Give the backbone structure.
Amino acid sequence: MDLALLESLNDRFAFENRLEFAFHESGLIAGHVKTDQCLAEFFLHGAHVTQFVPQDEKPLLFMSSESMFDSSNPIRGGIPICFPWFGSHPSNFEMPSHGFARISGWELVETSWHGESVQVELALKLAPFDLRYVMTFSSELHVELQITNASDELQTCETALHTYFAVSNIANVSLTGLENDSFIDQLTREKHPPSLDSNGLNGSNGPVHPISFEKETDLIYLETSAAIQIHDSDWNRTIEIEKEGSLSTVVWNPWIAKSARMPDFGNDEYQNMVCVETANISPQHMLIQPNELKRVACRHSILQK
Ligand code: TA6
């Protein structure tokens, strides 16, 4: 534990009573936000938001009790940043799932606060890209990944803000906003047309809309910039996810068998989470020209009851 580094970070970037940095028990450095509007936590490792609790609300994000916290593994829960590819590497299976961004040490570059909103900016060089990640903590959680092509050639990449949302029980949860979008079922690799046809009928044998969950669910919705709502009837709340710069949305719950295969995820934890991911995944991968900057962002808010 580098105490001098921690002291330097607090001297340069902390705000008394709003933002401070401390060592997590793992030795990783965590930022802690505390304002009148929210409590939040993030790690420099992976630029990983792990907690966001709006005032008088339950936590927005799910964190696994089995998560690893070390410099070579991703944190399980919160908002992992998948970049520069999604899922398995397209040609080299020895490469880490979901790319390097979520297992890299990001550099703190700027912090600021305006009223009750705290903003934190982190940076990572992941050749041929320069990344910035801007987290804004207010009564809502806004995160933005800024991707600059630092090379002199056209580059392609995929990305996903792989947000794990906390829910009372997956049996009480339904999703709206994706009814009109075609999707690929990752488990069967089958592509389906929009679930609701022009008459509003479920013509695709796909998930019934609103989407509910009765089994492992791993769906990539294509060519959609639609906002998504997570309805939780037991916690009597609706989480809204508003995307910017994203044409893919992933909906995932591992359910029973996959949960048991994940070493950093409790066997029953599938009941208390759902992933809705703001993404750009092939065939909606990103094409970035030399020196071009592209942004992918997401605003997470809890709609008033
Ligand atoms: O976003 C869904 C997904 O691609 C699933 O297929 C599952 O693998 C999940 O991501 C978690 O991946 P990870 O590498 O974090 O275990």
